[in-house]
């Protein structure tokens, strides 16, 4: 496989996890973008409870028995532990059996080949080649026309949106080749004046030329020459690139919204942000410039440090120590640290080897996932509450929002705000092993909290019923 090839980002979504082309990129392509730091903490953290990534990997078999083994087989692997080691960068020389772009795209597509109705994998069918893809969405598969007819009442409600999912899944490769996002401009409005992605796109100079350069670029041509699917119309590709741009920029802009909401002044002193529970989602193939949109939001700031902290952070360019002194003005310094957050606090913050945070952010902590995950988060939640650290969590949907609000309220945490995030990703994400569930959107909702609650009253959650439609 050519060195300049890259992976898809299989995000930490319900029952989703990183996949095979990410491995291929780490093995062969990552060095073409930047060199990897060898710096690591002196000791590897001990994980004593389940984490979202391993739970997501295991969950696929509950919907499609045997699917996790298909994924491992496509990577020439035998176990999740081997998979996890490769994700952590411990097996960079491993042969994943991917030699060409066509191999890469085909192996990825093979992991989606199961009947959406009866859940059978190709090997369980008399003829493994009998699976047929829905012509409309180019996403879900059926083993025969009977299964397709039986599934249609459910699938027809989501078919159009799942077409967007399938398209974005392919075009997302251009994030890792560096084509997406396009170079962005300094914000011409203050953050409280920018209400939506429409406002954000309107501030981008020469937007049409930048988008067209992506559509006509080398990697877009390579993509459609190798995926085995018809190339969509230019308008569809344009909208896909825009959705993927929002997906990339959603995290730094959401951090910017939190800094503004908590009244943190970036023009009087440098600011430190800790991203907790970070994993491959935030750190795999992450470049040191990936959060530079914060400088576009706050031009002339005194310096912003963003530290990714988590037991599943991946070795790479941002695996470098947090700052002990303030970094350069007007720039974002991005680093990561492999540790549980309470351990990081004790070993780094309390010893002044890392700055105390002005803001802590958790992207999709998954407090609702299961008791083990919640218990794993408890020491961190209590630390943030007791030290009165301004904190923001993001969530996928209203159900997760309600559940997380209940947990934080029971911990007597002061909730200062919650609701729909105006800068949620516009890229729909399907539930990997259950494609006919409604897609979700990254950072669709947020919760802000700060210290100990002054009153035990629960926030009013009565207005959150109903489903928000983000359009097609």
TrEMBL record:
Keyword annotations: Metal-binding, Zinc, Zinc-finger
Domain MYND-type: residue ranges: 115-159
Annotated Gene3D superfamilies: 6.10.140.2220
Keyword Zinc listed: yes
Record keyword Transmembrane present: no
Membrane-traversing stretches: none
Region listing for Disordered, in residue ranges: 1-44
Superkingdom of this protein's organism: Eukaryota
One Gene Ontology MF term: zinc ion binding
PROSITE patterns assigned to the protein according to its UniProt record, in alphabetical order: ZF_MYND_1 (PS01360), ZF_MYND_2 (PS50865)
InterPro entries per the UniProt record, alphabetical: Mito_gene_expr_regulator, Mss51-like_C, Znf_MYND
Protein name in UniProt: MSS51 mitochondrial translational activator
Gene that produces this protein: MSS51
């Amino acid at each position: 496989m050519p060195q300049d090839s890259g992976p898809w980002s299989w995000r930490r979504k319900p029952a989703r996890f990183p996949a095979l082309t990410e491995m291929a990129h780490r093995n062969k392509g990552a060095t073409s973008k930047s060199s990897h730091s060898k710096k690591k903490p002196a000791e590897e953290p001990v994980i004593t409870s389940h984490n979202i990534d391993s739970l997501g990997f295991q969950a696929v078999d509950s919907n499609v028995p045997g699917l996790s083994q298909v994924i491992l087989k496509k990577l020439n692997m035998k176990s999740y532990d081997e998979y996890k080691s490769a994700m952590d960068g411990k097996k960079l020389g491993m042969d994943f059996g991917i030699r060409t772009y066509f191999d890469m795209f085909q192996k990825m597509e093979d992991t989606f080949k199961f009947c959406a109705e009866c859940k059978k994998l190709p090997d369980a069918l008399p003829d493994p080649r009998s699976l047929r893809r829905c012509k409309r969405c180019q996403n879900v598969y059926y083993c025969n026309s009977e299964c397709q007819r039986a599934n249609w009442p459910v699938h027809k409600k989501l078919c159009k949106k799942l077409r967007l999912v399938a398209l974005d899944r392919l075009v997302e490769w251009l994030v890792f080749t560096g084509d997406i996002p396009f170079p962005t401009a300094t914000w011409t409005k203050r953050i409280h004046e920018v209400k939506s992605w429409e406002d954000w796109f309107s501030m981008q100079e020469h937007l049409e030329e930048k988008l067209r350069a992506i559509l006509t670029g080398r990697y877009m041509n390579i993509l459609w020459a190798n995926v085995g699917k018809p190339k969509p119309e230019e308008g569809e590709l344009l909208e896909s690139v825009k959705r993927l741009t929002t997906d990339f920029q959603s995290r730094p802009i959401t951090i910017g919204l939190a800094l503004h909401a908590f009244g943190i002044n970036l023009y009087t002193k440098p600011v430190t942000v800790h991203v907790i529970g970070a994993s491959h989602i935030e750190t795999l193939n992450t470049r040191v410039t990936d959060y530079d949109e914060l400088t576009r939001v706050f031009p002339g700031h005194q310096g912003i440090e963003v530290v990714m902290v988590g037991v599943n952070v991946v070795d790479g360019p941002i695996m470098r120590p947090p700052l002990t002194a303030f970094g350069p003005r007007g720039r974002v310094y991005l680093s990561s640290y492999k540790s549980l957050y309470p351990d990081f606090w004790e070993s780094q913050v309390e010893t002044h080897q890392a700055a105390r945070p002005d803001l802590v952010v958790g992207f999709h902590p998954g407090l609702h996932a299961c008791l083990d995950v919640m218990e794993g988060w408890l020491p961190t939640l209590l630390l943030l509450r007791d030290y009165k650290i301004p904190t923001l969590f993001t969530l996928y949907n209203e159900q997760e929002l309600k559940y997380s609000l209940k947990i934080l309220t029971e911990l007597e945490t002061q909730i200062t705000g919650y609701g729909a995030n105006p800068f949620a990703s516009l890229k729909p994400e399907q539930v990997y092993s259950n494609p006919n569930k409604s897609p979700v959107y990254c950072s669709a909702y947020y919760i802000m909290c700060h210290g100990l609650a002054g009153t035990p009253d629960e926030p009013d959650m009565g207005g959150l019923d109903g489903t928000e439609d983000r359009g097609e």
